Amino acid sequence: MNKEMSRQKAIQQLKKIASHPKKKAEKESIVLSLFFASKEWKEAETIALVRPLDFEFDTNKIAKKAFAQGKSVVVPKSLPNRRLAFYEVHAASQYVVTKFGVEEPVSELLIEKTAIDLIVVPGLLFSSEGYRIGFGGGFYDRYLADYEGQTCSMVFAEQINNNWEVDVFDIPVGHIYTDFVKEVEVEK
């Protein structure tokens, strides 16, 4: 199956999960319990994450816990040439909705890539090796190409699918936390 077809099916699947808020919250709770018990979470001081669309995994729960534990949270802004830059946010930060429908922070406090300990990478589909299909812009693959910190993704079991071809520019995440029994640890 090609990536675009896989992408559309994944969006439909995520919207189906989101149409059952109680079940979605239960699935997120399982994933978050694994994540919050992880070495990556415990050791990270600065965590990067995207503000979720309605049907995606609710990363706002991660931000809330990070703020409560005194961790720094950074959220991306999209730049020209399909690039990302991450900016520090706080619980009271304001956001604007982009043409992609994503919330970006109203912040000018740019955080260098080397200062980010852990990036929670979004995606629609994930292979068991940690490769992902996102929305198709390549923003994260470009950013991760020379990133040396930890990466992980919060993934519903329904998002794990190996039925697509990995491209040479695809960058896998280091760990997948899923509601499918336990997290899938990816070998690098």
UniProtKB/TrEMBL annotation:
Keywords per UniProt: ATP-binding, Ligase, Magnesium, Metal-binding, Nucleotide-binding
Organism (species): Enterococcus eurekensis
GTP-binding is among the record's keywords: no
Entry GO MF terms: 5-formyltetrahydrofolate cyclo-ligase activity
Primary enzyme class: ligase
Protein name as it appears in the record: 5-formyltetrahydrofolate cyclo-ligase
Pfam hit, one: 5-FTHF_cyc-lig
PANTHER family xrefs: 5-FORMYLTETRAHYDROFOLATE CYCLO-LIGASE, ATPASE INHIBITOR/5-FORMYLTETRAHYDROFOLATE CYCLO-LIGASE
Keyword Metal-binding (UniProt): yes
InterPro entries attached to this UniProt entry: FTHF_cligase (IPR002698), FTHF_cligase-like_sf (IPR024185), NagB/RpiA_transferase-like (IPR037171)
Requisite cofactors: Mg(2+)
UniProt xrefs under SUPFAM superfamilies: NagB/RpiA/CoA transferase-like
Top-level taxon in the UniProt lineage: Bacteria
Family: Belongs to the 5-formyltetrahydrofolate cyclo-ligase family.
Catalytic activity field: (6S)-5-formyl-5,6,7,8-tetrahydrofolate + ATP = (6R)-5,10-methenyltetrahydrofolate + ADP + phosphate
EC number annotated for this UniProt entry: 6.3.3.2
